[in-house]
């Protein structure tokens, strides 16, 4: 689509956002007693904010104008944070991570796909070069350390070598003999044609015979194609059975062009920023400097006129001269100095009077508790309102028809650069005015500078300082050596020890699954079934991907430091961890029991390891710390081996690790567990703020047949389900001999890992070569599936 399409989309979305903000000011600020009404308001706002989020993300991804992208980015981050705040309120109200929302979707005429969480593409695009360099550096470290997995090369025995030579020689002899026999056959055929040349058919008869055969063949093909199109229209077949693919490839050429245009515009704007900054220093710098000096001098004179003395110059930590103009007026300074002087006089005379005690109000019956719901404070509404006001001032009435090249606006750059130039000049003026103030004080009031007075602390300067001796264990020495090391050396050590691993390139959308309306109806009755796969995708995106991808969202949104993915083996927990890292460009630290065996022994070693991970993770954020089989840290029995004991020590250090994470640190702790019920549930659940249960695929996900559109004008369409997706992805071709419905029924109780293993077992390299002559059959997959054990109902109930 052209750029004007996304400019109009931005304008329409901004109007919808203004409407939402007005509605929030009217509805959410009033206390409400009816919980169902509150839940309806929150769910409606949640769905509408998601639609705004989706449109803003599309506009931000396709716009080339860098200043417009910055304005859209501010609104995009604000909407992401507001969605997380509303989700927190919904969870607190319903006491469930997956509330019932089918009724709201029906009222708003939306389908379940409309509440999917989109992943902003700028998480990766804006840091693409840094991520590529880091990936190359990690690859080089692992290659030098010999930790890269290489295909094993087996040496050929003498008998195998002789057999290969014999096969090649016999094949050569067979080809030579076949060529010789072909020449003899053609010679005999030529002789026989000469003899029958006079008695053959006429040219008209031969042409009629050829036409008959060709017309029959052509009509059979057309009939077969019409039959397949009718089956697709009725929903009894899929397009993947005809062309072998389930979807069309993306327009890679357009994507690469857009990416190059964004990079070019960014480089041009950076050069313009530097040129404008230098121009402002030359043209407006002297005037700004003179104005600041006059204002500061006038403020000092007013303070002396009111208080009788010059004030102290604010230090740079508090903002320097900024604090003079922003925080306090001369009258406020006078009041503070008078109160301070009065307090000092009272202390000297010992006449400090105690404040009269306030009388406690008498208890008049039981205290009334307000049980009405009230929306909590938001950190993003002010950001959204500021972005909306900036849009109305700069972009709403701008004529974009003449801006064909989507070039930057010089006036906006000058306004931003002017603030930075003023800040640079202010620092220089502060240094000059501070010295000038000391000279004036010395000349007028007779006061001395800091060098002329003896400080209170200098009286005891001759006393000896007591230094604490380090402990014998040498733990402080290890921490001191760790503080002196560079990030590159720490990163290299962690990679060589196998604690930093390479991230598999999988996206969250690759975790296939569809909504199950039966689970939603059960929630309506008050039951709490396992979440469906789309709900798992939503929770992983909300608690894992969105905060890690945006610094603004992570600092201001409800903070989630730890996340637990629990479910049977093979349901895709590892894939979700790698998807979080892929979507955000995060480093992946792997703390599995096998990984920690023989490394960093003892409590001091583990503490040093956590310090290294924390230092590298904060410096190279975002980062994900993955603890696999995390239930073993909290197992009820005593550890039998040294490795198990060392792994259980992690449980005592995890609270300290999580406490060290601040809102500015984009570091997430993710645990995965196949058997969470084996752990001591008290400390186990306390360590993880959010727990997500990952289910096995249901029938709809395995087969994937349903109406994908709310409009009857659209054709019936079946998205790729597990069996279809994995078979086509592995190079297989589907025919009528493969009954997907039968496979979906038979594979009930099996996990995604089982299905992938079955497809890989059947579709070997040799079997793919035989595909044209020997099509796939349902029995091949059923035979391989029978060798696996399903997840039984008893095990599934233990997770609930």
From TrEMBL:
Gene Ontology MF, one: ATP binding
Domain of life: Eukaryota
InterPro entries referenced in this protein's UniProt entry, alphabetically: ATPase_AAA_core, IQ_motif_EF-hand-BS, N-DRC_Component, P-loop_NTPase
Domain ATPase AAA-type core, residue spans: 563-678
PROSITE patterns with a match to the protein in the record: IQ
UniProt xrefs under Pfam families: AAA, IQ
Chain intervals for the UniProt region annotation (Disordered): 342-367, 443-478
Listed Basic and acidic residues bias regions: 342-361, 455-464
PANTHER family: IQ MOTIF CONTAINING WITH AAA DOMAIN 1
Name of the featured protein: DRC11 protein
Organism the protein comes from: Hirundo rustica
């Amino acid at each position: 689509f052209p750029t004007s399409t996304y400019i109009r989309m931005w304008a329409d979305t901004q109007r919808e956002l203004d409407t939402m903000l007005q509605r929030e000011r009217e509805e959410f600020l009033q206390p409400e007693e009816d919980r169902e009404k509150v839940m309806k308001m929150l769910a409606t706002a949640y769905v509408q904010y998601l639609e705004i989020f989706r449109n803003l993300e599309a506009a931000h991804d396709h716009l080339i104008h860098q200043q417009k992208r910055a304005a859209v980015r501010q609104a995009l981050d604000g909407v992401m944070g507001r969605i997380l705040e509303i989700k927190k309120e919904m969870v607190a109200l319903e006491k469930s991570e997956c509330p019932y929302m089918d009724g709201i979707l029906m009222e708003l005429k939306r389908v379940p796909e409309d509440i999917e969480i989109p992943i902003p593409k700028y998480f990766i695009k804006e840091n693409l070069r840094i991520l590529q360099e880091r990936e190359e550096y990690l690859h080089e470290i692992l290659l030098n350390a010999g930790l890269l997995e290489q295909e094993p090369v087996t040496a050929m025995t003498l008998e195998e070598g002789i057999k290969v030579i014999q096969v090649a020689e016999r094949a050569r002899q067979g080809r030579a003999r076949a060529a010789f026999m072909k020449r003899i056959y053609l010679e005999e055929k030529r002789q026989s044609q000469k003899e029958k040349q006079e008695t053959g058919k006429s040219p008209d008869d031969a042409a009629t015979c050829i036409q008959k055969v060709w017309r029959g063949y052509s009509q059979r093909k057309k009939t077969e194609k019409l039959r397949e199109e009718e089956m697709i229209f009725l929903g009894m077949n899929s397009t993947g059975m005809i062309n072998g693919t389930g979807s069309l490839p993306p327009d890679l050429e357009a994507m690469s062009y857009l990416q190059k245009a964004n990079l070019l515009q960014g480089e041009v704007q950076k050069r313009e920023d530097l040129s404008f900054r230098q121009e402002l220093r030359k043209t407006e710098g002297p005037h700004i400097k003179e104005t600041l000096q006059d204002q500061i001098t006038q403020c000092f004179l007013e303070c002396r006129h009111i208080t009788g003395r010059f004030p102290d110059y604010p230090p740079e930590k508090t903002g320097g001269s900024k604090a003079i103009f922003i925080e306090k007026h001369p009258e406020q300074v006078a009041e503070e100095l008078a109160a301070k002087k009065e307090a000092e006089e009272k202390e000297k005379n010992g006449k400090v009077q105690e404040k009269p005690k306030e009388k406690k109000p008498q208890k008049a019956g039981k205290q009334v508790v307000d049980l009405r719901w009230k929306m909590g404070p938001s950190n993003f509404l002010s950001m959204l309102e500021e972005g909306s006001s900036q849009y109305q001032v700069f972009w709403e009435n701008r004529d974009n028809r003449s801006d064909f090249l989507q070039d930057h606006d010089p006036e906006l750059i000058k306004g931003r650069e002017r603030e930075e130039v003023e800040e640079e000049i202010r620092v220089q003026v502060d240094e000059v005015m501070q010295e000038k103030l000391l000279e004036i004080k010395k000349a007028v009031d007779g006061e001395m500078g800091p060098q002329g007075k003896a400080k209170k602390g200098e009286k005891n300067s001759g006393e000896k300082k007591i230094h604490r001796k380090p402990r014998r264990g040498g733990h402080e020495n290890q921490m001191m050596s760790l503080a002196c090391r560079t990030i590159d050396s720490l990163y290299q050590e962690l990679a060589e020890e196998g604690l930093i691993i390479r991230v598999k390139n999988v996206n969250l959308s690759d975790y296939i699954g569809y909504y199950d309306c039966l689970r939603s109806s059960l929630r309506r009755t008050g039951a709490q079934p396992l979440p469906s796969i789309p709900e798992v995708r939503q929770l992983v995106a909300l608690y894992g991907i969105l905060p890690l991808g945006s610094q603004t969202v992570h600092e201001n949104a409800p903070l989630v430091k730890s996340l637990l993915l629990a479910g049977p083996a093979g349901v895709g927990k590892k894939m979700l961890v790698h998807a979080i890292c892929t979507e955000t460009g995060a480093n992946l630290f792997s703390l599995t029991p096998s990984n920690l065996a023989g490394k960093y022994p003892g409590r001091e070693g583990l503490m040093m390891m956590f310090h290294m991970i924390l230092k590298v993770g904060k410096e190279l954020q975002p980062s994900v710390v993955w603890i696999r089989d995390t239930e073993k840290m909290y197992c009820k029995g005593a550890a039998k081996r040294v490795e198990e004991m060392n792994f259980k020590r992690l449980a005592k250090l995890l609270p300290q690790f999580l406490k060290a994470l601040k809102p500015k640190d984009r570091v997430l702790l993710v645990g995965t567990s196949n058997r969470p019920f084996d752990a001591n549930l008290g400390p186990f659940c306390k360590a993880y703020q959010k727990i997500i249960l990952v289910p096995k695929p249901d029938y709809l996900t395995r087969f994937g047949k349903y109406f994908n559109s709310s409009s009857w004008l659209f054709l019936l369409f079946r998205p790729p389900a597990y069996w279809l997706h994995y078979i086509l992805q592995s190079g297989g071709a589907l025919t009528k001999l493969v009954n997907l419905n039968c496979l979906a029924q038979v594979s009930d109780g099996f996990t995604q890992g089982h299905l992938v293993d079955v497809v890989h077992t059947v579709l070997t390299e040799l079997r793919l070569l035989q595909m044209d002559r020997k099509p796939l059959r349902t029995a091949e997959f059923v035979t391989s599936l029978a060798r696996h054990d399903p997840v039984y109902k008893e095990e599934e109930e233990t997770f609930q």
